[in-house]
Amino acid sequence: MDIILGVLFNGLSSAMILYVIAIGMSLTMGMMRFVNLAHGSFAMAGGYGLVFFGEQLGLPFWLSIALSTLLVTLASAVLERLLYRRLYGASELEQVLFSIGLIFVASAVARYLFGPSTQNVTVPDALSAQISLGSFSASSYRSMLIIAGFVLFGSMTLLLEKTSLGAKLRAAVDNRRMAESIGIRSEQLFILTFCLGSALAAFGGALGAEVLPIRPSYAFDQLNYVLIVVAVGGLGTLYGPFVAALILGITDTACKYWLPELGAFFIFAAMVVLLLWRPNGVFSRT
Amino acid sequence: MKAHTSVPPEAAAELLRRHRFRPIEALPWIVIALVYFLLPKSLALGTQILIMVMFALSLDLLQGYAGITSLGHAVFFGTGAYAAGILTIHGVGEPLVGLLFSLVLCGALGLLSGAIILRTHGLALLMLTLGILLMGAEFANRAAWLTGGADGLQGMVVGPIMGLIEFDFRSRVAYVYALAVLLVVFVLVRYMVYSPYGRSLFGMQQNINRMSSIGAPVRSRLVVAYGVSAAIAGVAGAVNAQVNAFVGPNVLTLELSAGVLTMLIFGGVGRLYGAFVGAAFYMIMHDYLARVDPTYWYLWLGVLLIAVVMYSKGGILGLADKLLAWGARK
Amino acid sequence: MSEVVLETRDLNRSFGALVVTDKVNFTLRAGARHALIGPNGAGKTTFVNLLTGKLAPSSGQVLMFGEDITGLSEYQRVKKGMARTFQINALFMDMTVLENVALAVSEHQGTAWKLFKPLGKMDSVIEAAYAQLCMLGIEAYAARAVRELSYGLQRLVEIAIALSLNPRILLLDEPAAGVPASESGIILSALDRLDPSIAIMIIEHDMALVFRFADEITVLERGRVVAHGTPQEISTNEHVRSIYFGERQVAHG
Questions:
Q1: How far is B60 from chain A (nearest CA, A)?
Q2: CATH code for the structural domain at A2-116+138-277
Q3: What pLDDT was estimated at residue B302?
Q4: Which single residue of A99, A240, A277, B128 has CA 20 to 30 Å from A54?
């Protein structure tokens, strides 16, 4: 029983971090129809930002995360203006190769600035403790991740369903031309969505630094899983990425524990099957 | 020009002539032959380039002609490599037999997976191509009893070609072998792209609605393209395994798939010789920069990719076209 | 009465709660010049898509030459003798005019599957394609890329492609749409010269064209047939006048 709880718990915390990173990608891909494989690089930047502010400058944990997120968000705004904007109408191949190019550049820069090895991140004492729930002891760090994930999901739901910005976002994802014809300015919305997505990625990368190791190959390491969550969850839907992340995180942890010979094979096979069944994501309407 | 048709020449000139062999097309082959004689120390790299040209040609059929973007094409290269390699371990060392085996196997896998995944399009299709690659890679990593796992296939004994010609250590035989296979593959692909079938593939890329409205069975044509492309990629993989006498899990990576896509965009997508130019450019750059500094290989690759996508979508051949047009106007 | 070449029986199509085609019974006879009209959003193009097989019905049947083709895919129906043009040009923009038609011809002649014979060597295909261009008077543009042509000429290429399939049934979706007034004459004369034995259904908003071209009119409103008859009957039909012509004057009475 403890083992099952342990697997669930670890799976859940992995899932939440995946969700935090993937939701931004799902939003931007749904909104701008842009295949941005470099999304993981923004998460990586968030992690490295935490290392810079927290380890190198010695600032407190949460402050470092906040500063890192802010910095990456600003950088992403600049990138959107300078580069991404020019490629919104481009072919799939061009977008894919552009974003792969970006991953390469980001990875090389990270390696130059921080070296090739995995970065160490010191979490505050409160998060290093183990909480015991009866006979089962849980890492408080992972508990924090789970809480953060749910809080974020709640916030996203509120944002998308209750605010006018959220309504505009949903309209533009659904049918951009129609949205523009009723006065929604897509240019502004794009940059806003892009920054929101990058902020979420950076936040996720920093928060999850203990679980998803911060190193130059980060974007490629996580790319597969993030893409799976986005594709299976469906672009721009609310519940899709959350549920997909849950399924993926828990199943992957369970498989790695109980069926290590299979490894990630099951996850990839599951993705193929799910995509064939529901090409637009498991929660899409079509 | 022969007047074998009642259609006036100026109306159909391009259509009637374009499939004919043009003198300038001999250039890449002359260069390839010159390398053999003038750069005997670079034949190992040269052989790898020829293999990559083959691989890039197979992908161009999908990307440049049928208009299908695949992130997972390395799965056919890798399967072809492992198939040929495993065959030698079980006693069949003759390379041409290995080629044929990989051709048929990968062609069949291509037809099968194409039939399944080509019902989808857009992001779903892209992810499915990646998913199949990831499944293959994971399988190769885990099934150590068959593939040698993470260490790769050990104990490959590649026999003499047709029982007569042994591979030598200076890659001379390997180079000519790869060249011969490439030549056959290239001629076939060249005929294909000018055939009605090949033009219908391009038609699908231009306007898929129109294609089905003129009575073309679009899906089955695409599946055939996928199968042929997979077969050629498998042959390239087999040659790779045979000339190196080794297969490792690096033939089944996203990095390889992305690499061959990069080669295409560097050279020029949808133009037969784009594969030649792009693969040569990429591999030579990689060889040079990786020796100077492996970190900076990625930096420059990334910068170059971004630059090409933003400013020169037609790749090197596209640039050459523009230069020629500019020169002609002067 | 000539033979019925295409008909629908109780054809229905809905998207969730939205009914776009509502129990449509439609008949097209050999040699017909049948116009389908109706306000925007009436479901005319959807209906054509149901006829050609691009869209599957929710219920009901489509019959061609008396045979139930409801389960047949689009390309299968084309092979049986149905061709269409699109409301917005669907052409191979970077290919020449000649090749655009040649691709259709090679599909029709059954040689399109050939993998290794160059298209440039298929004389019968090229000659038939060129002949088709001559019939529409656009042979001078044969070697030009479609992208370079004016919209009106592109519209003619669209028609040429459909005709090169030697169809017995031709569905034209707003052939004059988007064509500037200076060029609409060439579309009209092309339509006039169409083979009288082909059964033609035409969707149009241009009432002058409709009344000049059609000898039978079906009116669609919100997916349902609300009127059917000769041009004379339709132009005097009260309901049609109210829903379609509205307060504006009728172009031809």
A1: 12
A2: 1.10.3470
A3: 93
A4: A99
Taking contacts as CB-CB distances below 8 angstroms, the residues of chain B near A93 are 63, 69, 261, 265, 269
In angstroms, rounded to a whole number, what is the distance separating the alpha carbons of residues B138 and B150?
10
The pLDDT value given to residue B78: 97
Q: Sketch the domain layout of chain A as residue ranges.
A: 2-116+138-277
Q: Which of residues 106-145 of C touch B (CB under 8 A)?
A: 106-108, 111-123, 125-127, 130, 139, 142-143
A285 pLDDT more than 80 = no
Q: Which chain B residues are closer than 8 Å to C130 by Cβ? A: 6-7, 11-12
With a cut of 70, say whether residue B39 has pLDDT above it: yes
Q: What is the pLDDT of residues B271-297, one digit of tens each?
A: 989 999 999 999 999 998 888 887 788
Selected residue of B195, B200, B223 to mutate for chain C interface (largest C Cβ count, 10 A): B195
Total number of domains constituting chain C: 1
pTM of the model: 0.91
CATH code, domain with C241? 3.40.50.300
Q: In terms of pLDDT, which residue wins out, B164 or C161?
A: C161
State the count of interchain CB pairs (< 8 A) between B and C: 134
Residue C144 falls inside a structural domain: yes
Per-residue pLDDT, averaged over B187-191, amounts to 95
Listed by start position, the domains of chain B span 25-251
Cα dihedral C205→C208→C210→C212 (10° resolution):
-170
